[in-house]
Design a protein that fits this description.
This protein has six helices and no strands. The protein is mostly helical and about 210 residues long. The chain has a domain at about 70-208. The protein is rod-shaped. About 20% of the residues are buried.
């Protein structure tokens, strides 16, 4: 496939890429899911209210557990027994300590997720700029093609062919970036699922 056919085939595919129009009020938000910058712990946690300052880093056991519970690469079944081993202290009940544990997990996951969402928006803004650049070049290519057909001028045809090549490669770059965005858009969802799963593990230990 060469020339005009190659370019327009790519451009047709570009308009069908998933997620490109799901802005939900934010033109720079490319993901299918709605943009929600911060999670709500009340949607996944039915235990005691979470403390605003959980101070989990000051508790050696919690300081070791929170990173394990938030890391998506660590299977939850491996850390569940460690959560079950948490006991009370002289000044704090077991349930209070478990609640602080989830507060720390939620705080860390929500912070990481917020940063990822910001990065997606910034990346998508540049992606949108490339789309607008392609549209402008497409319009210019139509004008050049019309002139070339009318005048049969070699310089006009050369300019048209050169611009057509630019459109082709810009579109390839656009498609590569679109595939990256589709992958990155999964990250906030996976983090939210992780937070919910951790909440269920810890809730299962309350009252024991």
């Amino acid at each position: 496939m060469t020339g005009t056919t190659k370019v327009w085939a790519l451009l047709a595919a570009l308009t069908l890429l998933p997620g490109a129009a799901a802005a939900f009020g934010d033109e720079n938000w490319p993901c299918v899911q709605r943009k929600v910058e911060h999670l709500s712990w009340g949607q996944m946690w039915t235990g005691p209210a979470l403390p605003e300052t959980p101070r989990w880093r000051q508790d050696e056991t919690l300081a070791e557990l929170v990173p394990l519970l938030t890391a998506r690469g660590v299977p939850l079944e491996e850390v569940a027994p460690l959560v079950a081993d948490i006991g009370p202290t002289e000044t704090e009940s077991r349930d209070e300590r478990l609640t602080r544990l989830f507060a720390g997990v939620f705080q860390e996951i929500d912070t990481e997720r917020y940063k990822i969402i910001g990065g997606i928006s910034r990346f998508a803004e540049k992606h949108r700029g490339l789309s607008q650049q392609i549209d402008a070049k497409r319009e210019r290519a139509r004008e050049l093609e019309a002139v070339a057909e009318e005048t049969d001028d070699n310089d006009a045809w050369d300019a048209f062919e050169a611009l057509e090549d630019e459109i082709y490669w810009d579109t390839r770059i656009y498609q590569d970036r679109q595939r990256s965005i589709t992958y990155v858009c999964e990250s906030p969802v996976l983090l939210e699922k992780r937070a919910f799963a951790v909440a269920q593990i810890i809730l299962g230990e309350l009252g024991k």
